[in-house]
User: Fold this.
Amino acid sequence: MWLLQLAWKNMWRNRYRTLITMAAIFFAVILSVIASSLKEGIFNNLVKNVVSFYTGYAQVHKRGYWNEQILDNSFETAPATEQKILRQKNVAGITPRLESFALVSSGDVTKGSLVAGIDVEKETAITGLKDKLVQGIYLKSTDTAILLAQGLAERLKLKVADTAVLIGQGYHGATAAGKYVVKGIVKFGSPELNDKALFMPLAAAQDFYSAYGMVTSYVLSFNNTAAAEASVIAMRSSMDSSYEVMSWGDMIPDIKQHITADSNNMKYVQGILYMLICFGIFGTLLMMMVERKFEIGMLVAIGMKKIKLMVLLTVESILTVFAGCIIGLLVSIPVIYYLNRHPLRIGGETAKAYERFGFEAIFPTSTDAAIFINQGLVVIAMGLLISLYPVYKVIRLNPVAAMKK
Assistant:
């Protein structure tokens, strides 16, 4: 106990030196937390953008559908199948879709389009489709109307309440044709999807394609998105062999590879940051040892054992590191929360490049508690490791030489 009291008094005998050391650790914690939080937030946002655009975190299809996406590879909806999926651990929701393609015409303009028949309520719960509405009103399940993506509407020169003509091929080669009123316009961050997507209620799509009671996929959402891959693997072993279960990474492998590559690159950036943090903390400890060289030499000269002096300096270092770390964590929490609510935004050509890949040009932070804990522990570990330097200097100390000015 007396060592703890003495260490605390020693810390504040030269308050400026202690405050400088704590400041180095304080800023190290803040920089470490912000860098890690930005990395996690950016990649989580990329995944969220990808899955919320259209795919969802996972999909269930008839086996072979993903390689040959035609209506003949659709399957009949069955409440028993839906309940079996919903009973799977971590599955939060499910929505059916009937997807195919059609030509959309307005006047003399015709454009190929992805047509998605959706359960209007379940779809918006999983992908937030209703939130992407920029004009008009959202669909009802009984409507025979459509929602157009903004880019497709502009190409066809269609507005809300205009009529679009759809022509395509239905189930088992049947002819599909119909006129539909544009009830609303939605906008996606993905330019590709924004230029070719069209939505209609599931019943209307089944009637249009003569695919009554059929769907091409079930789109899934999860309670814990971090465990989505594990949930997909578990579902594959429990589902009937006539179905295939695919995660968003299986459906969009190029995006997953992009995120993995960027994540690996960020590790090098964090490594450089940790190295700078080490130099910052070491610099303050080096300054402290130079200033206290005479004091330490005198203590040894008057009979204080080096082992006690080493323990004393270690306790001082621990208190300083912990104090700086805790203050840094407390200050970083509101900073990270603010950057999460008001993410960094970039503009110009960089923003356009992001949009071409289908990503929003924003950099939000992650508020995951594990980030604060992990980064705090990393900085504490670095601080304690570097604090061994004063211990090393005491071991090598020559009291007579230390007291010479």
